Structures are given as structure tokens and as C-alpha cells.
Amino acid sequence: MSQPHVIVIGGGINGAAIARDAARRGLRVTVFEKNDFGCGTSWSSSKLIHGGLRYLEHFHLNLVRSSLRERNWLLHTYPHNTRWLPFVVPVYRHSPHSRWVLKAGLKLYQYLDSSHNDFDSMDAESLLAHIPGLSSEGLRGGFVYQDGHCLFPERLVLDNLKDAVNHGASIHNHHKVLQFEPSGSRIAAVRVRDELTGTESEHPCDFVVNAAGPWIDGLIGGLGAKSPLSLGFRGSHLVFKNNELQLRHAIYTPARSDGRPFFIIPWLNFVLVGTTEVQEDGSASDTVPSAKEVDYLIKEINYCLPDTHWKQEDAVLSFSGIRSLIFKPGSSLNALSREMGLYDHTRDGYENILTLIGGKLTTFRETAESVVNRMVTSQSWHAGLCQTYEPLAFGEGSDRYSGLLNEESLDRLKTLYGGQTKAVVDLIRSDSSLGKRLSEGVPDLAAQVVYAVKEEWAGTVADVLLRRTGAALEPNAGKPAAAEVAAIMQPLLGWDDSRMQAEIQNYKRLVDKTLLSHR
Fold this sequence. Notes:
Blueprint: E1 5-9, H1 13-24, E2 28-32, E3 48-49, H2 61-77, E4 82-92, H3 99-112, E5 120-122, H4 124-130, E6 139-150, H5 153-166, E7 170-172, E8 175-183, E9 186-194, E10 200-204, E11 207-210, H6 216-219, E12 230-241, E13 250-254, E14 261-267, E15 270-274, E16 278-279, H7 291-304, E17 317-326, E18 341-344, E19 353-357, H8 364-379, H9 407-417, H10 421-430, H11 446-455, H12 461-467, H13 482-493, H14 497-513
Parallel strand pairs: 1-2, 1-11, 2-7, 4-13, 11-19
Antiparallel strand pairs: 3-6, 4-6, 5-6, 8-9, 9-10, 12-15, 12-16, 12-17, 13-14, 14-15, 18-19
Helix pairs in contact: 1-5, 1-8, 10-11, 11-13, 12-13, 13-14
């Protein structure tokens, strides 16, 4: 007897993790993502793997405890793409919390953390020694503690999907779910369109998990669910070069203008500044920071680091993502739960569909376990126990690349691919032309494009430059590399010349509209 067939809608971190968990338990799994894997909230996050110190203020102790547990697991099992990062918390005269309140919060944070990371209390002089450019006006001291950082969250999505495929899952990128096909009290199938070819197809199923993030309400509009299930909030960031600042500690401080948490994070060779939290009323596609948000971020970083004198045009990138929170009528933003929620559509007359609301990057593994547990129990299926505490990193690691690659390119490969680096290097061994850089000043290589298409479901130039390599972070948001990437992809995907040229222009327009919109 064949195992039940589960369709997961949405290829962000939660959908990818659900697919991995379900496939490892022996279920048949199919994933549909309408854009590109990890292209939404996962890619546009603040890149933090953390417990959420701010959540203690609202007594979300279980969320913090589970987040810290999952953070520690991820830092231990996924070391090539995650790092411990020291955070400085300055305390000023205008700060909403005194030093003793913050110290009590950090002690509770430490108590909830099984790794028992300590924190340091510092006076103003010591804190300024850690962050020389920090504003000294009204500074009363502060604290330094450790939390987690994920360099490329989109790679985390891909590795979850790869592990799902290794356990039998079927993965479909750029496939949009058009409608559900009900039969009595069950969803019998979903109708899907390949967004790159226009081909439509129908896929029978035994269960559906709606993990589409900001798009969950749009998907279930025809099922009679009480709407909305979620509220979307836009979080915007600016990215600056870290050349002069040489920031080594992240800074976590209340924004001067509104008191909400504000992060300044060293990320690769950059400084990531954010975030905002603005209710999003429009489409979640092509979300960009508003002029007001850009001005807010510029003012706040110059309050905190007054010697930078950064201006809007100094930002090398800007981006926004939508975070979905569980809708609760009459609740303020601060009161909305940051925990994940599960909506069981049995109350709407359909007994084989669940909608996931919210969730954090840090807790994706635990979220997936909860979803699959609920699904298996509700259907009385016989499935294995959760196996996702096993390490995500896989593949054969090797450091024997001397003479083949320069140090910068090799470091990039190891950070992106971890134990799978050898598979990319082997492409260069078989064809030395694949060892060339995509453009001047970009450490990413032609081999990575081939690997992205053959092994990582890349179907567009944007997929490669934005979410398979780090090239979009390089000069002019990777636009100089677009033509080379398209030329490599053309024979692999059977593009004609007009399609190849269209891909180049599509990428450049996308970059101007989104990553460079602040200019």
C-alpha cells in the first residue's frame, strides 16, 4: 500500500522544513512554489537565528525557550552558514528600560538558554571601547551577549529541500497553485500552473499544507475560511559597506523616534540596518521600502553611530519582506503573537488541509514537526517519528583545493555549500572554464550557475544571482554578471536568444525596482 500523498504549498523556510520532516517519515511529498524557493520572507529577513530577547517583554517565555533551543541546534549542526555573533545593548538616558530591567531580562534569557551563554555588564567607557563610533550622548553603559546569525537563509531553505528530495520528495519551483479541487469534505487535488512555460496540470493528494506565508489568505479564499487569518507586516532594511566602520558587534537598541527594537548587524562585508514594522495592505509581491521607512532607517543609524553620516545614496542595497502574524481583532501590533498558528479547515468543512500562520526563521524545524504531527494525527496515518534533529549539512567535505581556486572564491563556496563544496569544485575539475568569475569583483564562479540549474532548481537569472550565489551583493547588485549567467543558463535550459536577452533585462529591472529602489 502506497503512503499518503502530501502537497505542501510554499517553498520558504517553513514549507521546505515541512517537506523535509514529512518525507523523512516516509510520506510522499510534493512541494509547489509559485516564485522561487526562499524568495520572500526567508531571503528578506534580518538574518538572525536568535531567541528573541524582545519577546520577554510580553512574557512569551515558551517562544523564547524553544527559539533558543532551536538556535543552539542550528549553530551546532549547520556551522558553515551560521555564526555566533556578539550583540551590544547600549543603555541611554532616553532608553525605555533601565539597566537593572535589562539585566534582569538578560538573566532570564540566560536561564532559558540551555547553552548557558553568559553576558557582560559594562560601563559607558568600556562599551565605547567595543564600539568606538557609538553615540556617547547620555550613554549610561550597557551589555554584551551572544546570539546567532545566518549568513544566507535562502541556502538554509535549499538544504531543507535537498534533504526532502533525498527522502523521496518531488520539488516544483515556479509552479503556482491556481485552485483546489474539492470532493465532498476533502481536497481531492490541486490545479497548478508552471509559471515559466504556462503549462497547467492537476495533482491528486491526500492532504494539503498551506505554508504560503504572506499569500495564505489568498490561497484559501474559496474554502470559506474566516478571513483574514493573518496580518502582514512589512520589514525593511538598508545595507551599507562595512569598510570604514569595521563593525564586529551587532548593536541592538530601541529606535530613538518610536522605541521599537532596532538592529545594526555586521553581515559579510556589509552592515545590515533594520527593521521597520508597517502593516502591509497591498500585494506581497515586489515589496520595497517606502521613502518614509528609508528616512527612518537613515536617521536611526545616524543617531546611534553619528560619525557615519550615512545618507540614502550610501546604501548599496535595500529590501523588504512581509511577516505574517496571527490575526486577532482589536489587538495592537505589539500584542499580536509571534508564535506560529495552525488553522484546521475542518471548521470550514474540509478535513485534509491545514494552514500555517506565522512562524520564525529560527524555529522552522520545530514548526515543521508540529505541523506534521498534527497532520498525521488528524488523519490517523501510520508514519515514522520525527527525524529532523539530524544535521542538515551533508555531502563530502574536503580542503584539498590548493591551486585550483583562490582563497576568496573558495571561502565563498564553503560558506554557501558547506559539505557540498566538493560537488561544485568537481564541475571545475571536469571543465576548467567553469572556474572563471561571473564578473569583475565578484567571487562567484561559472560552476555555481551550472550547479544551481542542475541541482538547485534555478530557472531564472534572478534565482541564480539573488538566491543561489552571493553575486547580487556585489557591485551594482550583480547586474554586471547578468549577461554571463544568462549565457551559461541558455544551453542548460534550452533558451533561445530572445529568451536569454529577456532574462538579462528582467533581472536588471527587478534589481532597479527592488534592491536599488531607495535610489
